[in-house]
Every structure is written in structure tokens, then in C-alpha cells.
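Help! Submission page says 'invalid entity' but I think these are all valid:
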Amino acid sequence: MKTEEVAKKLVELCRKGEWMQAVNSLYAKDIVSVEPRAMENMPAEMRGIDQVRGKTQWFMDNHEIHDSKVTGPFVARDTFVAKFDIDVTNKASKERMQMSEVGIYTVRDGKITREEFLPLAG
Amino acid sequence: MKTEEVAKKLVELCRKGEWMQAVNSLYAKDIVSVEPRAMENMPAEMRGIDQVRGKTQWFMDNHEIHDSKVTGPFVARDTFVAKFDIDVTNKASKERMQMSEVGIYTVRDGKITREEFLPLAG
């Protein structure tokens, strides 16, 4: 698949809330996933599809998603960007947050090989 | 300046329509600027602040901007993203377009050293 096809499929799956299906079908085995900072006992940078599946499962297990909006994709060459606005409650802390962030994705040989998330500056 | 300061200044100047001031105050001399594709007689990739000033001047001379909205910045490490929604008419063709794109910016030593633009996929 070309970058634009991968990008559109990712956005489509995220809009349906099918986060794990997106990882399983579109991510390379050697995916590198970079968060803005370390979270709980997870490092900011994770390597390999098993770690990314673990992070995705952790997010789903520990958060209640009330609403989410995905904008994009924005595509050029081997790169695409999607914007995520997510209204979410952390189940443990009961804290409800409006998260706004973009993901920058790199595609190689039809699979996502790198994703990097950038939060909206306060 | 740190990445977040540079990012916020860029967004502030773009919101005011002060595109050339943004280039003059925030861009490195060896800036690399990458558009999705070549335009008229300009290559997709331009190098050096003089070429980028030329592109900015060409854009301002040849387009009438009716409205623009800048979303962001989204910031992590040495990278930031801003989203631009611009309602613009090409003066020569009289074609009015709603452009939606994101810019991915790299900051080094307090200056923007690379910008890459990605249009919303159709």
C-alpha cells in the first residue's frame, strides 16, 4: 500500500475506535513508537509491535473514552499526520481530560515503521 | 529559544499574517523547506533563507488571503506541528481554494532548520 492508503486506513480504524486492529493490520514488526514523555512504568520510546500492542491494551484498559475526533490524514511522500482530540477519563484517578495531539507517521513498504506523538502546547 | 517558544512565536506571527516576519526572525540561514510538489517554476525542495523568502514573497504577491486559521502548535523534543486552514484566491487564475495542510518543523539552536508541508488527503 502507498502512504496515502495506509494513512486513510489508520484514520478510518481510529475513527471506529479499533485501535488494536490498526496496530495489527498496519504496523511493521519493528515499529518505533515515541510518546512525548514516559508514562507510569512505560518508557517514552517503545520498539517492536509487542510493546506497542501492550501500550495500546494498557490505554484501553485504563481509560474510558467518551468521545474522539480524528482529523486528517495529511500526506506527503513517506509521511502522514493525523490529529486526535480525545475526551477521556483515567479510570484510576477519575480525572477527565481533553487530550489534543498529533501523530507523525512514517510508512515503509506499506507498513507504519515509526509514530511520534506531539501534544498541543499549553 | 526552546522548541516550544519558537513554535508559539511562529503560530502567533502566522495568525497575524506576518509570514515574512516569521521567516526573518525564526528561520535558520540554511533552512530546508519542502512542499508536497513543485509549483510553477519552483522545485518542491528549497534550500537557504533567500529561497524561502522568495517563495513567501511569491505566495503573498500571487494570492489574496480571505481568511486563515492556525491550529497548534503541537510540540515534542525538537519538532513541532502547526495546522493551517487558508481560504485563498490565486490572483492569476481567479481560482478560490480552501487549503488545509500541516507543517512539520524541526528546531535546532533556537531556529527552524527544516519545514515540510503535508496537504489534507482528498
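Support: the input was valid. A stray whitespace character was the problem, and the output above is from the cleaned input. Chain B touches chain A through 25 residues (CB under 8 Å).
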